[in-house]
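anyone seen this seq b4? input:
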Amino acid sequence: MANVDSNSTQDSKPRVVMKVDSIGMVFQNPDMTDLIALGEVSFNLKEHEILAVVGPSGCGKTTIFNVIAGLIEPTKGSVHVQEKLVQGAVGQVGYMLQKDMLLPWRTVIENVILGLEVRGVSDKLAREKAMQLIEAYGLKGFENNLPTTLSGGMRQRVAFMRTLAFDPDVILLDEPFSALDFQTRILLQGEVMKIIRERGKSAILVTHDISEAITMADRVLVLSHRPSYVKKIYDIELSLSDRDPVHIRKNLEYQKYFDQIWTDLEIQI
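predicted toks r here
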């Protein structure tokens, strides 16, 4: 019988790049009573993985993101990225918001390099890196345009490139396609998913769209009502050669996951 190298077996397992450990969050209402936003939430994010988070409206999805990004400190629990405790905003985490938040007086390339400027990268190097992204992801020729001249989908591409520019270990996507029309949304789902996988990144996607979660994610995490906890995590295993956002919706396995996740959410309404 062949010998099995235990070390190589362990190395083949996906490495955990982020660990959320029993975080809880309590806010204070105007009348000085407590609002418990997060009960006790634990999960991890693996290397090269896309994890989607779905849950009822107001269950604390954005609060979780703000804790992971170091924008707020949890009442209890902790978050580690690359085994380092998150304390305050950290450069290892890129955060793409629902709105593109482009600065209207800055050109496309000037918006893309914004995060690099904050980190003290030289203008020459920052612009070189930005142009590589602009050329790679379909906006060559628009680098000197102002945001007001761009479509909604193009603006979101710029916002995503700005997030990618400083090469974060973990990318947080907070409903980045929700303001777009259906056709543009489907197109960008496929583009962003492809970019994340091509660049070997790990990402967490918050969405209200079950279809989007199944299409883009390797796992889907379902949160409960507030105070939220992790109700269930689905491993999305589809017998498809690719995750084309249109073709995947015709797959019977896709429908199975959709029905299961919808049932989990519907029970909580």
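The first strand starts at residue 16 and ends at 28. Residues 96-167 form one domain. kinda curious what u guys think
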